[in-house]
Specification:
The chain has 506 residues and is an all-alpha fold. It contains 17 helices and no strands. The protein has two domains: 415 residues, Growth Hormone, Chain: A (Up-down Bundle); 56 residues. Helix 11 runs parallel beside helix 16. Keywords: Antibiotic resistance, Cell membrane, Membrane, Transmembrane, Transmembrane helix, Transport.
Length: 506
């Protein structure tokens, strides 16, 4: 590899195997995103097979969410300190082993343990994957293409999980929703071992911030658990309130510590940058909206319309197509020509229009006439917005902080998902109960009334998701003022303003 000069892109951008590396990084990302959805589809079968009570089944989801959400910052910093390629491979191998345990689970404790382990290794894997993209693709045009592909996978993976989960559950067995991760992880790990070469200058040589790890991890665990508990209990229930108070205290202490220690777990410059902060916030809000789409449209199609899990997965394919087109064809082609805000704000607004259409769901809404166009708009809008948002969230950060900056993207999405699930479920349940009680006296068909009440609950929650997407657009418009990497410097020559690595901090 030729030595760097001050006027060229970093040597990582010249790595002839960087596009091969993207294939394996994207495969790993697809596995992580698909896994988040696929287990939801398999849960009823697993619950019946392992005799899990209704009260305990939430732990199949919550065990993963707590470990993943709580350890993301730690995983991102470990990748910076010990090497992203190493963290990526260890995360893949560990995720595969945890998945094997889940697939072979003989009781509920074994299944919970496997999900927690998946969360632990996922928290190492996910930030490492995104940060590898950040340090490998430093040429602006190549970075746009790479993030376009990555963003499309991140957005569409949940819908792919519905299709894959439904197919495996219907035609094989719920255990295959775990076992399917093993070939994914094996291929990605082998490929990473053979082709990924992490730039040496991007390694962080500082020490690990132990107080930051403890405070940050416990604070995030308390926050995620608070929302998870609120989904099943009352928001004013004592333990729920205690979790939110603990999260506020721990995360406040975390910020104070990070401002004072020499080598912080999360350098505050990463999140206080106006553009990155705006990207994190808008992506987090968009995840709430996406959860509204997947959660309630899945319920609607399966419960009200009677779709099978496989048919439900197929029904989401228009959104997947829109997501891929928005990310790879629109976002990637325009991100080097216009400021990120010019893509993100219209993207979120187009997605909001799609969500607005879904507020009109009824018992007999036409799938082709309304649900498909709404999905296409949602996919196009979110795909167009996610691509520049994810790229901006890791732009102009020191290469030595790429892992923790990438972890913050995952944190915003994970917390957004937890908030979305708890908040929107609560809104839907309240509206459903209210509608049922108001109409039960004059009803002659209890099943019809039940379905009508469900649809009322779904549309009430989707209205909130619509306004949340408008909020994401507003935050992007108000906070993000970056002009992006466009203009003459986008060729890669001189893109770094005289620096060897063109993604340096201000």
């Amino acid at each position: 590899m030729p030595p760097e000069t001050a006027v060229s892109t970093s040597h990582s951008a010249l790595d002839p195997k960087r596009w091969q590396a993207l294939v394996f990084i994207s495969l790993a990302q697809l596995m992580v995103v698909v896994d988040a959805t696929i287990v939801n589809i398999a849960l009823p079968s697993a619950q019946a097979d392992l005799d899990i009570s209704d009260g305990n089944r939430q732990w199949v989801i919550t065990a993963y969410a707590l470990a993943f959400g709580g350890l993301l910052l730690f995983g991102g910093r470990v990748a910076d300190l010990w090497g992203r390629r190493r963290a990526f491979i260890i995360g893949l191998v560990g995720f595969a082993l945890a998945s094997a345990i889940g697939g072979a689970a003989q009781n509920e404790a074994m299944l919970y343990a496997s999900r927690a382990l998946q969360g632990v290794f996922g928290a190492l894997l996910a930030p490492a994957a995104l940060s590898l993209l950040t340090v490998l693709f430093t040429d602006v045009k190549e970075r746009a293409k790479a993030f376009g592909i990555f963003g499309a996978i991140a957005g569409a993976g949940a819908a792919v999980g519905l299709l894959l989960g439904g197919s495996l559950t219907d035609y094989l067995d719920w255990r295959w929703t775990f076992f399917v991760n093993i070939p994914f992880a094996g291929i990605a790990a082998l490929g990473a071992w053979l082709v990924i070469r992490e730039p040496a200058e991007s390694r962080n040589r500082s020490t690990l911030d132990i107080p930051g790890v403890v405070l940050g991890s416990l604070g995030l665990v308390a926050l995620v658990y608070g929302f998870a508990r609120a989904e099943h209990e009352d928001w004013t229930e004592s333990i729920t309130v205690l979790m939110f108070v603990a999260a506020a205290v721990l995360l406040t202490a975390f910020v104070i510590v990070e401002a004072k220690v020499k080598s912080p777990l999360l350098p505050l410059r990463v999140v206080t940058d106006r553009n990155r902060g705006g990207a994190y916030a808008s992506l987090g809000l968009a995840m709430i909206g996406m959860f509204g789409l997947f959660l309630f449209l899945t319920y609607y199609l399966q419960i009200v319309r009677g779709y099978s899990p496989v048919k439900t997965g197929v029904a989401f394919l228009p959104m997947v197509a829109g997501m891929i087109i928005g990310s790879t064809m629109i976002g990637t082609r325009l991100v080097t020509r216009v400021p990120p805000r010019v893509l993100m704000v219209p993207g979120f607004l187009v997605a909001a229009v799609g969500m607005l259409m879904l507020t009109q769901l009824s018992l007999d809404t036409s799938y082709l006439g309304m649900i498909v166009p709404a999905q296409v708009l949602l996919g196009l809008g979110l795909g167009t917005a996610f691509m520049p948002g994810m790229s901006l969230a890791t732009e102009r950060v020191k290469p030595t902080d790429a892992g923790v900056a990438s972890a913050m993207v995952n944190v915003s999405q994970q917390v957004g998902g937890a908030i979305g699930t708890a908040l929107l479920n609560t809104i839907a349940a309240s509206a459903t109960t209210s509608y049922f009680n108001d109409h039960v006296a004059g009803s002659t068909n209890e099943q019809l009334l039940t379905f009508s009440a469900m649809v009322e609950g779904y549309t009430s929650a989707i209205w909130w998701a619509f306004f949340i997407l408008l909020g994401a657009a507003a935050i992007a418009a108000l906070l993000i003022n970056s002009k992006g990497n466009q203009g003459p410097a986008t060729s890669g020559e001189g893109a770094g303003d005289g620096q060897p690595v063109p993604v340096m901090v201000h």
